[in-house]
Amino acid sequence: MKINDKSFVPYIEEKAIQEAVQDIAQAINQDFAERKPVLVTVLNGAFMFASDLMKCLDIEVEISFVKVKSYEGTQSSGKVKQLFGLDTPLEGKDVILLEDIVDTGYTVQHLIKILEEKKPASINIASLLFKPDALQVPVSLKYKGIEIPNKFVVGYGLDYDGYGRQYKDIYRLKE
Ligand code: IMP
Question: Please, are residues 129 and 102 in contact by the beta-carbon 8 Å criterion?
Answer without folding.
Answer: yes
